[in-house]
Amino acid sequence: MLVIGAGGAGARAAIEAAQTGRQVALICRSPLGKGGLTPTANGGYQAAVLPGDSPAIHAEDLIAVGCGLNDRPLVEVLTGEALEQARMLEQFGARMNWEIPQKVHEPQMRYPRSIFVPGKEVLATLRRQLRKYGNVLLLEDYLSLQLLFHDGEVVGALLFDIKEGSITVCESKATILATGSLGEIYPLSAQEPMGLPTGSTGSGYILAGMAGADLVDMEMIQFSIVPLHPPLIQGMRCLPWGPLRNSQGNEFLPPNAGEYSHETAQALYRELQRGAVTMDLHDRKAPDHARHPVAGQRNRQLREFEVTPYQRRVTVGLASLFMMGGVHINERCETSVPGLYAAGEVAGNVHGARRVAGNAFTEMIVFGARAGKYAAREAAGKGRFPEVPKQQIGECLERLSGIVQEKHGDITPGELRRKARSIMGRYLHVIRTGPGIQTALEELGTLEQDLPFVRVKTEGGLRYNASLIETFDVNWLLAVSRIVCQAALTRQESRGFQFREDFPEEKEDWLKHTVIRRAGGEWVGGTKAVAG
Amino acid sequence: MDPQNNSVRLKILRYNPPFDENPYNETYTVPVGNEKMSVLQALEYIYEEQDDTLAFRRYCCGVQYCNSCLMLINGKQTHACLTIVKPGEEIEVAPVKGKRVLKDLITD
Ligand SMILES: Cc1cc2nc3c(=O)[nH]c(=O)nc-3n(C[C@H](O)[C@H](O)[C@H](O)COP(=O)(O)OP(=O)(O)OC[C@H]3O[C@@H](n4cnc5c(N)ncnc54)[C@H](O)[C@@H]3O)c2cc1C
Ligand code: FES
Predict the structure, then answer these.
(1) Taking Cα atoms as reference points, which of A36, A43, A6, A13 lies closest to residue A361?
(2) Residues 232-261 of A with CB under 8 A from B
(3) A414 contact residues in B (CB cutoff 8 A)
């Protein structure tokens, strides 16, 4: 079995699969715990624990905030197994803080539910647990370039060994995608702490999509408020909340809008078009360190940086935070392609049109465990390894040699990345229009024409060649940006984090997923029913 | 303005076996304006704007949690994401000691 991506979802999946005795390869483009989003996260893990609360109430709350676009069976799995999986994590040795803070981040939530376990603690725990299994092969610094498929079934993946600069083929009877998010398609991202990357370039969506999997609700991207200036704290989250003021010094947020809501994001977006926005923290105190180790850490950092935002105003921006859409899954984490499973942020139909903060950790652990279990079951039922298609391997190698070939011209992958991000920031932010999206598609098309001419420096060899990796990334980034555009164009209404100025109303007959699917060498848009 | 004070200089120990016989130092100048910067941000700037052959672990957690940015800065093992460089400063950057260097600042 193969698990791609060693964030919380992938690591959890590998443990579950390993328990069944299967041979598991867990591969990741970064060392476990040193990349992706899980290590950056605050650590809220939501579950119904307080008296009076229940998984059913938790589920209703998530679906209400998700504007009905969540697949109910998946939400019920999430809320139903949240507590059991949190206890399991504790059994594995994670230090959890069960003291649930009273404050709810979203006014619609009927109960506070945030248990606390920082991403670092989750990953350190899962790593310790993984070491107990001799049947898990952890391959760090391996980038999956492509899934291999045969007779409509995923049968393995092509891997690029970043350390050696070489290609490896991994055969598998069942493959789990746990590749995280795509926040880096925007110029300002909460997935880039201090403006530095986490590797969240959307590769998983393309891997799945190219193998024929359905990608749903790819227009649904959550944006949140982050500091913009000074650069040392750009993109950093977890500041306390203070009043936002526009360039005239007036507050402008709608009353009772949640911190992570689309109402807040849209109001901020409109103000940012007119001028700078600041968050007034002059009378705020630093968050309580004891309860919130991550906030405590950030505070120490801010002090050391001498940019403590307390006692002053901080210039803020609007940053991509979370991808609600993604690879379509069912309760067993099966995608629409046999042999392929997905879990964690890369999966699509759990959070609907807006995620409630603190439920992504629950998702990654609950569905990570499920993906491991069901994928192992499928692998156990298969006798021999399926045949690996030589032709796909050949084609991929050919593409690769094209990428590293000597080129004239001087287009760098970084330059294409910057241009693509600026297009997405301009036309596909929280407020969109049909003509704007069309323009974005055209401009992305122009950039795509430059892709074959990107120059990769090969004088120092292909080992740890960052410009080569960035070239792979910019290919994914452009492709996934195109998919986001097409999904946003397909949904002719406004719901949650999709706001179309030309279709400003939420429409009953649009209570369905958008689907982007590969057909005839192109990405084609359609719709799919929401599972009730 | 005196350009000298608007930049930081990083002397970085580079080594790409087997291409390089021995490690060597290379010095880069990063314009910072009036802003402080972390060493990791300065390395990212060098990679993006000046030399994309420089190897270091780029992924960042931003919370001093992941340890992927551990390196020797002015001889001391520390987190590059947390170490500040101020306009006018010059610092020395090298891979952590006691581990095999895979390339530049990346160790086994
Ligand atoms: C700043 C911030 C704070 C957050 N705080 C919270 C919170 O408090 N509570 C909460 O519930 N959620 C929070 N979230 C969301 C949550 O962190 C993520 O949804 C979750 O960690 C995703 O886990 P994952 O395992 O799916 O992905 P990741 O942790 O991103 O892991 C994916 C892994 O796959 C690897 N990978 C990707 N592509 C490839 C490829 N092609 N080949 C090989 N490897 C690959 C990546 O390197 C990475 O290691 C936060 C998010 C951010 C950005
Ligand atoms: S980037 Fe994670 S500790 Fe420095």
Answers:
(1) A43
(2) 232, 235-236
(3) 48, 52
Topology adopted by domain A390-529: Methane Monooxygenase Hydroxylase; Chain G, domain 1 (1.20.58)
Q: Taking CB atoms and an 8 Å limit, are A30 and B59 in contact across chains?
A: yes
* Distance separating alpha carbons of residues A295 and A486, to the nearest angstrom: 38
Question: What is the structure's pLDDT at A506?
Answer: 97
E-only strand ranges, A298-360: 313-323, 326-327, 340-342
Chain A's closest residue to B70, CA to CA, is A34
Please say if the pLDDT value at position A7 is more than 60.
yes
Closest CA to ligand 1's atom 3: A41
Residue range(s) defining the domain that contains residue B37: 3-107
CB contact under 8 A, B102 and A464: yes
Burial A145-162 (b: 16+ CB within 10 A, else e): bbbbbeeebbbbbbbbbb
Confidence class for position A237, pLDDT limits 50, 70, 90: low
Does residue B61 have a pLDDT over 70?
A: yes
Paired residues of A514 in beta bridges:
A527
Instruction: Give residue for tokens 């939420």.
Output: A506
pLDDT tens for residues A344-389?
Answer: 999 999 999 999 999 999 999 999 999 999 999 999 998 887 788 8
Q: What is the pTM of this model?
A: 0.96
- Interface membership of A192 toward B (CB under 8 Å): yes
- Total domains, chain B: 1
A317-354 confidence digits (pLDDT tens): 999 999 999 999 999 999 999 999 999 999 999 999 99
